[in-house]
Amino acid sequence: MVTNSLGSVRSANATVTVNPRIRIVQQPTGTNVALQASIRLTVQASGAIPLTYQWFRNDFALPGQTNATLLIASATLTDAGEYRAEIESSSEVISSEIVEVTVSLDQSQAGGVLAIAANSSGAGSSVNIVAQGLPATTYEIQVSSDLRSGNWITIRTVIADENGQFTIDPPGTQGGYWFIRTVRRQ
Description:
By secondary structure, the protein is mostly beta strands. 2% of the residues lie in helices and 46% in strands. The strands form six sheets. Strands 4, 7, 8, 10, 11 and 12 form a six-stranded mixed beta sheet that branches. Strand 10 and strand 11 (93-95) form a beta hairpin.
């Protein structure tokens, strides 16, 4: 009821609902995974239902990653970065802690080496890379001028020495770049 010098007015009854604040019960945990392994991050939250989730990598929303658990079935090197989840209710949005995910080459899969080499255009200049792998293991040295194309060309096969080392001599690039990788052969 509201009253003033002109009279009184009674309003209809109203219901007020106070939603509980979102509380993160379990923060995600950073991880280091091998190339092509799965990435699994989980955040647990409580609060006014329904809660919705959105995962971010390096502050960019990940399409389709809208559950409490983020799952990437086969990690690539570009999946490495800082991850966080935003949790939203009807009354607020909060963010989890930022966690670091690293993706590394597993020596049993790819020989443990990924190198990017530049060969300058100066006469007689070259780049030699000493690589570390598994002792007495055969590797293919592959090159590509463009990581996006997936066109890898085998230029040589080498066998790592007793310390697991071998040398990669990149081809001339005429002032450009070659992306180099090693692939372990069984």
